[in-house]
Amino acid sequence: MKQENHKSPQGEQLHLDVIIVGAGISGIGSAYHLQKNCPDKSFAILEMKDTFGGTWETHKYPGVRSDSDLYTFGYAFKPWVGNPIATGEEILSYMGEVIEENGLSSHIRYGHRITACRWSSSQNLWQLDVIHLSDGSLLQMSCKFLWMCQGYYDHENPYLPDWAGMDRYEGLLVHAQKWDPSVDYSGKRILVIGSGATAATVIPEFAKTAEHVTMLQRSPTYFYCDENRNELADRLRLIGIDEETIHRVVRADIIYQQYEMTQLAETDPDEMIRMLREQICSYVGEDFEFEPHFVPKYRPWQQRLAFCPGADIFKAAVDGALTVVTDTIDTFTETGVRTSSGEEIEADIIVAATGFNLKVMGGIPFEVDGEQVNWHDTVNYRGMMFTGVPNMTWVFGYFRASWTLRVDMLGDLISRLLNKMTEKGVERVEVSLRDEDRDMEILPWIGEDEFNPNYLMRDLDQLPSRGSKPEWRHNQDYWVEREQVPATDLDGAEFVYDGQRGGAKQDGNQRVA
Description:
The protein is α/β, with parallel strands linked by helices.
C-alpha cells in the first residue's frame, strides 16, 4: 500500500519514508549517511530534548570531555581540527557544524517524545504515538522504516544506589548526570563516589578550586595516559597538508594503534598493564605507589579504557589535592559518609559518579502486529536488526573503540539496505534465523568475560540475545567488523524481503511466515 506524505495543520509532515530517533552523535551521523546515500527518501529526526547533542547535552558536570580521541570519535566525513580529547562544548560545536553544513536542521523535530511504536504488517508501516512537549499535544506519525539512534541509557534517571542513611546527609548530594553548572564548589570539601571515566574527568576540575577532593571507589579503573595532542597531525599541519587528508591519515593511524593495544591486552595483559603504568609514571615519577588504590581487579579491555590527558587525576593525587579511599559505604552521616572499615569522610558536596541505568530503545514500548516486543526474546543480527521486528535498525556503537566508528559503518550499510529494498520493489525487510542456525546456542548480548561494566551487567536481561555465530551478535571488535560489515551480503538467506528469503528462487518455497 502506497501512502502519500501528508502534514499536520501546523505544516508538520506526519508520514515519512524514514524516521531517525535521536539527534545525538548517532542520529546526526546517520542522517548524513541517509541523505547522502538515499537522496530520494523523506526523513525526519525526532528528538525529545530541545536541542541536539544527546549525551553531550545531558552531561554538564565540570570538565566534561570525551574519553576517546576525536579523530576516531569524530565522523569519517568531517575532519576534526582540535586537540584529540575535546570538551563537551567543542563536540557540540562540531555537531552543530555538521548539521549546518549538510542542511539537516530542517529535518530535526525537537521536543518530540515517542510513547509507542506499532508495526502493521497489513500496511507495512510503523505507527508512532508522539507527544509534542512544548504544548502537550499528541501526534500520530508513521514511517516505512525506523532508524533508532537514541543510545542505550536513561538520560533522565541515572543510576544512584540506595545507600543507607542518604536522607541524613545535610550537604549537597547530586549524581554527576544531574549536575547544575551554577553550583559554586570553590573552597568546598568534595567527595566523588566512583572511579570510572566520569570521576576521572570531574576530579581534576574540582581540584583546581576545591578545598580538597576525595575519591571513594569500590575498585580502581585502568586509564590510558598521554598528552592531549597528536604529533602526526601536528607534523602534517606544519608541512601544509590539507585537513581532509590529515583527518583520514591520523584516523587510520590511531585505529591501527588501538588494534595493536587490543591485541596486546588479549595476548599479554601483564605487558599491557606494565605499559599503562609506565605512561602514568612518566608524568608522576617512577616511585608512584600503585598499591592499593590503583590496581584494578579486571583485565585491561574488560571495561572501557578511557583516555586520561596528561595523567591529570594521578597528578592530583601526587600533589595532595586528591585523597583516594578504596572501600564500600556503610552509611551516610549528617556530614558525609562512613565506610565499611569505619573511616569517616566529611564533605560539603557529594557527587555520585555511579554510572547509568540501561534503557533499551529509549524505553519505548514496541508492538509488532499487536504483540508486544520483548527485546531479550529477539536475536540480534550484527547488533543492528532483530528477529521478528521488521523495517527497524538500531545504532549501538563500540565500547572498546570510538562509538562513532560504528555510526559511520552502519550508516552506509543501512543506506545500502534501504536502496536494496527500492531495487527489489519491496516494502518490508526483516532478519530470520536460517535452517543452519536452528540449533545455534542463544546467549546473552555480551559475555561477562569479554566486557563487564556494572551498568551492562545489571540489566543484561533487557538487551536482545546473541547467537554463537559471528553474524548473530554485536561484535565489540571493530577491527573484525570493519571488514565484515561492509561485506554483508544483503541477498543472504538471513534477510527476508516481503516474506521471501534473500537468495531464494521466486518459486514460493522459501517464504517465511
